[in-house]
Amino acid sequence: MDPSMGVNSVTISVEGMTCNSCVWTIEQQIGKVNGVHHIKVSLEEKNATIIYDPKLQTPKTLQEAIDDMGFDAVLHNPDPLPVLTDTLFLTVTASLTLPWDHIQSTLLKTKGVTDIKIYPQKRTVAVTIIPSIVNANQIKELVPELSLDTGTLEKKSGACEDHSMAQAGEVVLKMKVEGMTCHSCTSTIEGKIGKLQGVQRIKVSLDNQEATIVYQPHLISVEEMKKQIEAMGFPAFVKKQPKYLKLGAIDVERLKNTPVKSSEGSQQRSPSYTNDSTATFIIDGMHCKSCVSNIESTLSALQYVSSIVVSLENRSAIVKYNASSVTPESLRKAIEAVSPGLYRVSITSEVESTSNSPSSSSLQKIPLNVVSQPLTQETVINIDGMTCNSCVQSIEGVISKKPGVKSIRVSLANSNGTVEYDPLLTSPETLRGAIEDMGFDATLSGMTPVQDKEEGKTSSKCYIQVTGMTCASCVANIERNLRREEGIYSILVALMAGKAEVRYNPAVIQPPMIAEFIRELGFGATVIENADEGDGVLELVVRGMTCASCVHKIESSLTKHRGILYCSVALATNKAHIKYDPEIIGPRDIIHTIESLGFEASLVKKDRSASHLDHKREIRQWRRSFLVSLFFCIPVMGLMIYMMVMDHHFATLHHNQNMSKEEMINLHSSMFLERQILPGLSVMNLLSFLLCVPVQFFGGWYFYIQAYKALKHKTANMDVLIVLATTIAFAYSLIILLVAMYERAKVNPITFFDTPPMLFVFIALGRWLEHIAKGKTSEALAKLISLQATEATIVTLDSDNILLSEEQVDVELVQRGDIIKVVPGGKFPVDGRVIEGHSMVDESLITGEAMPVAKKPGSTVIAGSINQNGSLLICATHVGADTTLSQIVKLVEEAQTSKAPIQQFADKLSGYFVPFIVFVSIATLLVWIVIGFLNFEIVETYFPGYNRSISRTETIIRFAFQASITVLCIACPCSLGLATPTAVMVGTGVGAQNGILIKGGEPLEMAHKVKVVVFDKTGTITHGTPVVNQVKVLTESNRISHHKILAIVGTAESNSEHPLGTAITKYCKQELDTETLGTCIDFQVVPGCGISCKVTNIEGLLHKNNWNIEDNNIKHASLVQIDASNEQSSTSSSMIIDAQISNALNAQQYKVLIGNREWMIRNGLVINNDVNDFMTEHERKGRTAVLVAVDDELCGLIAIADTVKPEAELAIHILKSMGLEVVLMTGDNSKTARSIASQVGITKVFAEVLPSHKVAKVKQLQEEGKRVAMVGDGINDSPALAMANVGIAIGTGTDVAIEAADVVLIRNDLLDVVASIDLSRKTVKRIRINFVFALIYNLVGIPIAAGVFMPIGLVLQPWMGSAAMAASSVSVVLSSLFLKLYRKPTYESYELPARSQIGQKSPSEISVHVGIDDTSRNSPKLGLLDRIVNYSRASINSLLSDKRSLNSVVTSEPDKHSLLVGDFREDDDTAL
To answer: Which of 888, 1031, 1282, 1304 could be 1300's S-S partner, Cβ–Cβ 3.0 to 4.6 Å?
Structure first.
């Protein structure tokens, strides 16, 4: 037997077994079959696993053998698994009594022995065994004359269990010996070293360039042997640290057998050779299954590698290789070279063997996670109830005798025991049980992740911020891998929050280590320091408390509960504030606990209407403030106007001369309003005062609060300024009035009681309008929040999942781990995982996908999505603020509060502005007082209300005050503050109305600076779904008609789930105008090749379309008549078909093959050159060409491609005309990319780009100083969308892309890209106009108010100042509202002017770059003449657009991967 042939294992499902005697019968019968080494039948799993010799048996014969016994045997996987074998070398110890052939026959009869070779001259027997069935000891018992050759022990897994056989103190050493060229070199080394004292045996391998030496270290040292070899002229290095020969059989067997576990049945490609070695490598830097397949495919292509198994979970690769051709070091380098810089590879072990291949996983009773297990494990068991050292000794004595226990140390002080054990022979649970049986309380403290209740005192919790997760599979990846790590009990990852909650054993692992594990999986991870972030907080109303002892009773009962971290109950307010750990306890449990103490507890009702977002309260408040101020302001304004008119009238009467005091008194007494009620108190002043007080204190109440808060935080904002102006005006007027009354003045003083009402009216109006605008943009958010369900139906199940009870609870009371029932039409109250039921769920609110998503047990569901047709039971995983919906709400909230850079500038400006204005105001006051006393004439001349009846000092003070208060009134940072937010608010609102969601001010402002727009291809420029472009009939029409082909193909593909199959079926249904197709049986699919099946019952379709056939034949005549010699008139052919149909049997069967070239060739069909040319042409255009064969005759060719969106070309033309650079970036191949680019008019293309490269490309463009907008739709685009200055996501794309983007286009329309940039430009323009309004107003207004322009007669009264100030704010708001008039340009408005200029690019004008390097794939630098020729050819090509792709696209080998792997191609001309 040739050991390289090997031994295989196959698992066969067996139905019909009823009891153990059936099992015994099958094992006995099949076990006797020639070539069967071993059989294991399982009644529970209803299967039989058979290890057999492939030269004597096949899976099929074994299946038939079981069938013959009367059982039903089914072979699910006909591919057998290779089994690991091992070779033992046995030497004859005593004089051999038995003949050699007797030994051979004895051993060959033994189950598990596959091959024997005898070397009589060396007195050695080489036995190949299957270690899972038989071991060395059993072989030795059969032939006692043989003893195991210890020199080869290192190589074998079936090594002996008792180490006495290797003489005490022997050590195996492997040395790398270089420079050996032939066998005389090896024999020289063997001869010299073998004679040294202390060297027992030596074997030198020329192929492996190594020496294996068994020696006695007390007689000779490694250094000495190395020197001896080097003295002969061969450089020598110690390959492995010397090993004492004491590996137990189980240990070695486990070392050999474990690698298989990491991948079920990875198929070995080539037989392994006798000098095969196995090396295990640890690979850091693998992220996903594609890394695994990448490494496996690259290495398995090497001829000296016989097998490779890569495990993503264990970050390992187990390579079997021909040791004579390659060293582990070069394999290590080969793995690193697969993706330079990505993988870090280290060699862990190198087990050399003559083995065949890994054994089937069903044979070993070894736990699955064996790979990461050391040969022994340690567990700590907490032991309560020990009193003295005799307890310690008795536990140590009993447990150390248990099988598998290597050592035990019990500590009385720490109340625990540390046990070192063999995980194959015992488990921590068994040991814990054994200690409990002795009468002690024992709990495990951190070996198994499952023991949640028994974590005892040693579990801690930490939170880790995780970045780089893009979808649910990332979450699953992190959770799955971390659960495997020792010391981690549980992990829960929230995708939207980007947070992982980990419960771990601090004795084993620390949070930084956990973060490191996550980073190794390829995500960013940082430990969140304030760990109380994930604690639940509960506010309860507790009724029925009477005194402090009630409070104490509740607090003490709750704090005793596990999981409650803090509790505080207030008797006065009947409120309880509780912090708890949501993993251990939930709000319902807490309420039950309080109720069990005899009190009533209920949740503090939360307002679910998102009222904090709709600004209703502020709107109400400002409206009230405005109306109050207005109500009192109107009479004040009336009085003021009346006084102004009267003053003017009297002034003209007296010809503008200043009046004396007496005249003044007479005048006042003649006017009703100036009559004095009390000395110094006129009717006018009294009315003004009475009307001003409510405005100052009720209308302005809110300003005072805000101003106080601002000053408390040492900042000065708008409110401070307003309060300052009104308070000073009011106080000043009141003081003057009181002074006049005190002096019993005859002449009435001039007061400023009119200022506060006027100011407050304008300001309140501005604020009211602003909040109304803000409320509008928050509606989207309020809608999101209102999507949340308010109640949940919680059910309790028994162990068999039978429903025991259900209750309706508030959604806030749902706890993690609750089972919730969701009926059809109901909303999911929380995020969870389906545990029972099947249904379709509408997740459009989260994902934007209109298609409902199928849910089955294990699927995740999202809060707020709607269940459609089936009832589901879900287990809650994220509740409250952790649900996806809450996280999205949070994101949107953050986006709305995110400030644009200009906005921050305005806020900063306001901060400096207020102190500056106060300073200017005080300066104005002082300057005018000084000027007045130095030169009174100026004041006299320019003070409008001056008359001689007032003293000089009062005149100066009043004049100065009036000027400074006017400065305060007019200076308005309001308009500065309003300039940006109002425009951004209106801009985002208008965007939303037009189907463009802009997240916050920053993207809206950034978009106008964009210089480069990068488009993804699939799903962005194209529809992302394949469509049939053309069907070509390849036979004469009298053989098989066009309709018949469609009917057959449509029926055949109706069972396929492949996107191409779906496209074909859809097309056939449309063409045949039917909803139902024929019957398809024996459907088989070969991934990457095609399908085969049998089709019947299509006659009905043809009858239905019979009257249509004639018509269609004429229509398709041009396609059908390929073979000119057989040309017939299409009408006659249709008659023939008619006849055929009528005569056809009802159930005619057609054997159908649909697939690529390889599939046809594999099925023995010949593809002639014409067909091949057709295919090549389609492939050159970036389409997928599929061949159809019916009854072994090639009869049709179908071209399928992803089609370009109709508006894409126009959108790109407009972007270019706006002066932007447009780039296409796709993961697809360069042919397809070029084809699409030529259709839409893009000249710069990056093809075959990975998602990470997309980010790099965006970065690269940014480093060139360009602002980049990225337009994409898929998960693969999301990193680039986040990286770009403006990420624009297509609304029909994935939810992740939408999350990553700054702008979301709700409609799947590329013209919205143009509209979003256009809107941004308009908004920024508006913001700039607003700033101009605000700044000009202040720059002009302040000097006028300060009286700088008095010489030219420009004088402002305080009320005029406040009116102007309000006018500036209102003008800014109105200017922003002008954006409301923005109309998104329509397709039609763009189309007409653009049509004349758009011309499709000929491929020679397109530069295609593969990957992200800027070196184009174009032809080398051309001379002038060549270029002229090219251009002229290009222009001719664009005229003859049909021929275009034929002449000028660079043809390359048709892309094999493009054939059926769903890598869809596209082109513009649809033939049908």
So the answer is: 1282
For residues 1019 and 1443, which has the higher predicted lDDT (pLDDT)?
A: 1019
Q: How many residues does the chain have?
A: 1472
Exposed / middle / buried, residue 662 (Cβ in 10 Å: 0-12, 13-18, 19+): exposed
The single-letter code of the amino acid at 287 is H
> Inter-axis angle of helices 718-743 and 901-934, to 10 degrees?
20
Taking the C-alpha atoms of residue 1287 and residue 997, their distance in angstroms, rounded to an integer, is 12
pLDDT-derived band at 1358 (thresholds 50, 70, 90) equals: low
Strand, coil or helix: what is 806?
strand
pLDDT tens for each residue of 632-647: 888 887 887 777 677 6
Q: How many CB atoms lie within 10 A of CB 285?
A: 15
Whole-angstrom Cα distance, residue 354 to residue 162?
A: 23
795 and 806 Cβ atoms separated by less than 8 Å? yes
46 class by beta-carbon count within 10 Å (0-12 exposed, 13-18 middle, 19+ buried): middle
pLDDT of 368 reads 37
CA distances from 614 to 97, 538, 619, 781, 898 (A): 101, 25, 9, 9, 17
1016 has catalytic annotation: yes
> Residue ranges of the alpha helices (H) in 787-883?
844-847
* Per-residue CA distances from 1128 to 107, 1042, 1193 (Å): 76, 15, 20
State if pTM tops 0.70.
Answer: no
Q: Is 908 exposed, middle or buried (0-12, 13-18, 19+ CB in 10 A)?
A: exposed
Burial class (CB in 10 A: 0-12, 13-18, 19+), 887: buried
| Dihedral (Cα; 1363, 1366, 1367, 1368), 10-degree rounding | 130
Give a three-class secondary structure readout of 427-460. CHHHHHHHHHHCCCEEEECCCCCCCCHHHHHHCE
What token pair was written down for 1294? 């994935």
Q: Yes or no: say if 1220 and 1011 are a contact pair by the CB < 8 Å rule.
A: yes
Determine the Cα–Cα distance for residues 1224 and 1398; give it in Å rounded to an integer.
18
Element (H, E) at 222: helix 222-231
DSSP state of 341: T
How far is the C-alpha of 1320 from the C-alpha of 1340, rounded, in Å? 30
| Active-site entry in 1016, 1312, 1318, 1467 | 1016
Pseudo-torsion of CA 1439, 1443, 1449, 1455, nearest 10°? 150
DSSP 715-729: ---HHHHHHHHHHHH
Give pLDDT, residue 218. Answer: 79
The CA-atom distances, in angstroms, between 769 and each of 695, 766, 774, 1367 are 20, 5, 9, 13
Q: What are phi and psi of 811, to 5 degrees?
A: -65, -25
1260 token code pair: 């690269």
**Amino acid (1-letter code) at residue 156:** K
Strand order in the sheet with 803-810: 803-810, 791-797, 819-822, 872-878, 831-836, 860-861
What type of residue is 883? T
- Answer whether 905's CB lies under 8 Å from 911's CB: no
Kindly provide the b/e burial profile for residues 1294-1314, where b requires at least 16 CB atoms within 10 angstroms of the residue's own CB. bbbbbbbbbbbbbebbbbbbb
- Residue 95, pLDDT > 70, answer no
Strands (E) located in 992-1136? 996-998, 1012-1016, 1022-1033, 1079-1086, 1090-1096
- When pLDDT is averaged across residues 775-780 and rounded to a whole number, the result is 53
Cα 359 to Cα 43, 113, 132, 263, 352: the distances in Å are 22, 15, 8, 11, 16
Q: Residue written as tokens 């400074």?
A: 964
Please state the rounded mean pLDDT for residues 730-755. 78
Measuring CA to CA, which residue among 1034, 1038, 1115, 1035 is closest to residue 1071? 1115
Q: Which two tokens stand for residue 770?
A: 């602003």
